[in-house]
Design a protein that fits this description.
This protein is 35% helix and 26% strand. It is α+β, with helices and mostly antiparallel strands. A hairpin with a 6-residue loop joins strand 7 and strand 8.
Amino acid sequence: MRKIGAHSLLCPSALRTTTFLLLLAPVFASPPASAETLEDTLRRCTEFSNDQKRLACFDKAAANLKARAELRFGHEGKDIAEEAPESISATITSAAEGAHGKFTFTLDNGQVWRQTSSGRAIWREGEQVTLERGALGSFFMRKATGGRSLRVKRIK
């Protein structure tokens, strides 16, 4: 036995620690980069012209949802960011001024966004807006015609 300091490389505590670390490695490893996204799977299913094959594909995708959820556990934010668009466009259906002069905007797609940045908002019903993804999970809303953007948070 080769010794390092006062401990042996083959001592029981070193073997337990090594075994423990080797067993945990798959838990902390990232899922494979080549894993097919749910969107890709569903898109592939729609390509079947045969009804039975298409249904079988969708059934298989549905059966794999629980396994997929367990596999992606802890990476939910990453999945959302990868599969979500960088921006969306919508029309303001209502703009209500709230506390501290900050507005709450209801959009034609049913989403409700609240202004979080300070600044005056001169936006009215019927205006087309673009919501864009920002850094660190933030979102910005600007008129489709351009101009200054507002930091917003989705509340519904």
